[in-house]
Design goal:
Layout lengths: L1 E2 L23 H18 L12 H12 L13 E3 L8 E12 L5 E11 L3 E3 L3 H10 L2 E2 L1 H16 L3 E10 H4 L10 E8 L4 H12 L5
Bound molecules: zinc ion.
Length: about 220
């Protein structure tokens, strides 16, 4: 398992998109401009743009990109409601097998899989439904699996002030499977950790719980 280290290139502690987010409003203009670029690509491919199957393809692709890259939109960052840790719970909270879809920043084709997120609370806890939203926010943009893993860990570390946090992501990359080395079904695993997860015992407890399959 590879453990990535935050390089500080992406500031995820404040508003995650900084000033680079795509402004809301004028979606018609945005779709129109993006569709124009898609038409250009299709022309370069010598496609018959009168083929009925292609008639609205540029607009469909433009709208699809806006959906798949929603994390880049202004205001997309999830509101994180935290609660005081009144029960004084100081053990591991784990959310396993959270599915996600993202797009490889290098090839603009999907990579997808599951994230496993664990944290040990300090003074605050977070609603469990928020963990998938944080994952989705960072997944819906051109992304690297390594960076996605780090961003989720950094977000929780910065916002919750937990004793520790660890994120493991397992994913299939279509840029590996459909092209290049064409290794179908290869799984890439990344992990990121903060705080007490640096302690081998804590980390091993999490990994042991991950390995345990629950039959529902
Ligand atoms: Zn790729």
């Amino acid at each position: 398992m590879k453990e990535t280290v935050a390089e500080g290139a992406y500031d995820t502690t404040e508003t995650a998109n900084g000033d680079n987010s795509i402004p809301m409003g004028d979606d018609d203009g945005l779709v129109h401009r993006m569709a124009g670029h898609m038409t250009g690509i299709m022309r370069e491919l010598n496609l018959d743009l009168d083929d009925p199957n292609f008639i609205e393809t540029p607009e469909r692709v433009a709208k699809m990109y806006l959906e798949m890259f929603h994390g880049l939109r202004e205001g997309a960052e999830p509101k994180i409601t935290t609660f005081p840790n009144e029960g004084d719970y100081h053990h591991m909270v784990i959310e396993k097998e959270i599915p996600f879809y993202s797009m490889c920043a290098h090839h603009f084709v999907p990579f997808y899989g599951h994230a496993h997120i664990a944290y040990i609370p300090g003074e605050t806890i977070v609603g469990l439904s928020k963990l998938p939203r944080i994952l989705e926010f960072y997944a819906k943009r051109p992304q690297l699996q390594e960076r996605l893993t780090e961003q989720i860990a950094e977000f929780l570390w910065g916002r919750l002030g937990p004793q520790g946090v660890m994120v493991v992501i397992e994913a299939r990359h279509l840029c590996v499977e459909m092209r290049g080395v064409k290794k179908s079904g290869a799984l890439t695993t990344t992990s990121a950790l903060r705080g007490c997860f640096a302690d081998r015992k804590v980390r091993e407890e999490f990994l042991a719980l991950l390995a345990r399959k629950t039959a529902w």
